[in-house]
Amino acid sequence: MCSEQRLVPALSMLLCCALLSSPLAAADTGSGSIKLALTPATCVALQQGRICYATVHVHWQSATQQDLCLQAGTQKLYCWPTGLEGHWRYEFAEYDSQQLQLVSRDGSQAQATISVNWVQKNPRVKRHWRLF
Amino acid sequence: MRQWWCLFFLMLVSTRCHASWDELEFTGYLAVGTGFQRALVSPLDRTVNDKLLLNLSADLQYRNFFIESDDRRNVLRYGSGLLGYHLWQQEDSALSLIGTNYQDAIGPDLNTGTGRTHLPELDGLQLRDSDFLLGLRYQRFWQQHYVAVEIGQDIESHYSQQLRLLYSYRQPLRNWDLYYNVGVSFSAARLVNYYYGVSAAESQSGRPTYSAGAGQQLHLGVSALYPLSTDWLLELGLAVNGFSSAYTDSPLVDRDTEFRSLVKFRYVF
Questions:
Q1: Which of A32, A41, A82, B15 has the greatest number of beta carbons closer than 10 A?
Q2: How many domains does chain A contain in total?
Q3: d(CA B68, CA B258)
Q4: DSSP letters along A81-122, please?
Q5: Which CATH number does the domain housing residue A50 bear?
Q6: A11 vs B230: CB contact, 8 Å cut-off?
Q7: Given A11, A53, A123, which is nearest B34 (Cβ)?
Q8: DSSP class of A67
Q9: Which residues lie closer than 8 Å to B235 by C-beta, 6 or more apart?
Q10: Has this prediction a pTM greater than 0.90?
Q11: With contact defined as beta carbons under 8 Å apart, do B239 and B262 qualify?
């Protein structure tokens, strides 16, 4: 038998393990003096082929004043006023992983990737049945 | 024991000539969680409430043979699976032979996932064992809709029949999957009487004899699934089950409706 007092810590610990096993840590691939961080850097969907949603906190820092925009491919997502750092909340909704770049007039300054993963990959046998 | 013979038979049928493991699809789950219930027979609440639910299950498909883990579209049961064999299958529909347990045991001493539980309020009752129905299921998917018709004959305890109709709608909401479920079941008098009837030998003060007729159940449920990571799922479920007078008139029953809920963390492997 398991009492309620023992049940709550056990479930809390399990939730912690589940969350810690997911890469919530920021991706960071700054080139030169600009550091770009995305938190979380991974989005998990239930099935492959489904849009994955995540609210990603974008943060960059630089030792010198910068005039930067965030881009996904050629699409401009957000531009910051000139400064030493910037924050932005990005509502990510994509089928696949996406590379983000911090771009200045001189070109790409830093990049980081939001990875899309799935709990269930597409089955080998094509069918509509969903496992979950 | 008969469940295992059924499983063995179905595997034998599925593994005949040209067997190839490439055709095997397997997903295993180790689930841990907790549930809360207000059962028709109130002492049964203690078999679930304040207990840790631990469950090892799998979704498996090999040729026409399959095992399904807990049914997200039906929160009637805790930790029950289903095994079956597709007689006919298309991309959006299937007719299958199935074997599964619908009704949990009722009695003064019950085996639960966390050990044996004694329910003194039910002293003097003979054990009503859990059932195992063999039957047919037709199911169909279209868009986010799902319907299933199941008819089964028990081979384990009451040797009676049950017909179940189930409709479910899946709503993807960001990374969540929400399932809205409605089910109706029709049970033969022998089944209802086996679980909820009271014989002369079991009768005592405050528990008169009772003979039940055929009965119906209505199931309304919502369940939700959320991916915590590539290996972990969070599963939530809420259900209300209404019962006809064949059930609620029983002296064993002290509620008109049943309420069930669960929270589970599932490790996927």
A1: A41
A2: 1
A3: 25
A4: PSEEEEEEEEEEEESS-EEEEEEETTEEEEEEEEEEEEEEPP
A5: 2.60.40.10
A6: no
A7: A11
A8: -
A9: B31, B33, B72, B223, B224, B225, B226, B262, B263, B264, B265, B266
A10: no
A11: no
pLDDT digits (tens), chain A, 132 positions: 334 444 445 545 544 444 444 444 454 544 558 999 999 999 999 998 899 999 999 999 999 999 999 999 999 999 999 999 999 999 999 999 999 999 999 999 999 999 999 997 655 544 545 555
Q: Cα–Cα distance between A67 and B11 in angstroms, integer?
A: 65
Domain ranges of chain B: 2-14+29-268
Q: Do the Cβ atoms of B196 and B219 come closer than 8 Å? A: no
A48 is a domain residue: yes
> Does the distance separating the beta carbons of A11 and B265 come in below 8 Å?
yes
Of A11, A46, A54, which has the smallest distance from its Cβ to B225's Cβ?
A46
Q: For chain B, what's the residue count? A: 269
Does A16 reside within a domain?
A: no
Q: Which CATH number fits domain B2-14+29-268: 3.30.70.2330, 2.40.160.40, 2.60.40.10, 3.40.50.12780?
A: 2.40.160.40
A74 within some domain: yes
Asked if residue A100 lies in contact with residue A132, where contact means CB atoms within 8 angstroms, the answer is: no
A5 to chain B, closest Cα gap in Å: 9
Distance from CA of A119 to the nearest CA of B (A): 4
